[in-house]
Design goal:
The chain is mainly alpha-helical and 174 residues long. It has helices spanning 13-17, 43-51, 72-88, 111-122, 130-153, 159-168, and strands spanning 9-11, 30-34, 55-59. It is globular and about 55 Å long.
Length: 174
């Protein structure tokens, strides 16, 4: 691929779980660091590649796989944390993933998390202490929700709050 000025991209989870292979990988690879959990820090998923000198991108997810309706709260935390830590460690980009596994996902419901990812991508979250970062994220989500209601639904009514409650139902919340 070098002759064509192309680079290989590799999902990084296998290497993170088997760190002995990291130094055996070609250094011109681009590592795709991913995890879809609502973690406050993604450093453990990124730092092994940074320390080994790889270019990398981060790949958070909208948390829509194997479900009809996405887990929006999980996605907002995952996307924010991954983009914050990716930016901090100098990621060369990001992929906001949607895996429509099992065929039952209704894709239109993913736009909220995809748009949140675009917002966080264009306006990278600040590198802050984790407790402060959580507060900043909550303020940003509140502002984002107001804008999303206005732009996506054409209203200043809190439509997104209803959708978030639907998303919460998977956890038994009412």
């Amino acid at each position: 691929l070098k002759a064509y000025h192309k680079r290989i991209m590799m999902w990084g989870d296998i290497a993170v779980h088997n760190p002995n292979i990291i130094n055996r990988l070609p250094k011109d690879m681009i590592i795709v660091s991913w995890d879809y959990g609502p973690l406050e820090s993604m450093d453990d998923k990124i730092v092994p590649f940074v320390n080994s000198g790889f270019d990398f991108i981060v790949a958070p997810g909208v948390s829509c796989w194997s479900r009809i309706y996405p887990d929006m709260q999980r996605a907002t935390i995952n996307i924010y944390s991954y983009l914050r830590d990716g930016y901090k460690h100098k990621a060369i980009g990001f992929i906001n993933t949607t895996w429509d596994d099992s065929g039952q996902n209704l894709f239109g419901n993913n736009w909220y998390s995809l748009t949140w990812g675009a917002d966080c991508g264009w306006n990278a979250p600040l590198d802050e202490e984790l407790n402060q970062s959580k507060i900043t994220r909550e303020h940003r989500i509140a502002a984002f929700n107001l804008a999303y209601n206005h732009v996506y639904f054409g209203t200043d009514n809190p439509v997104i709050e209803v959708l978030l409650k639907i998303s919460d139902m998977r956890n038994g919340a009412v």
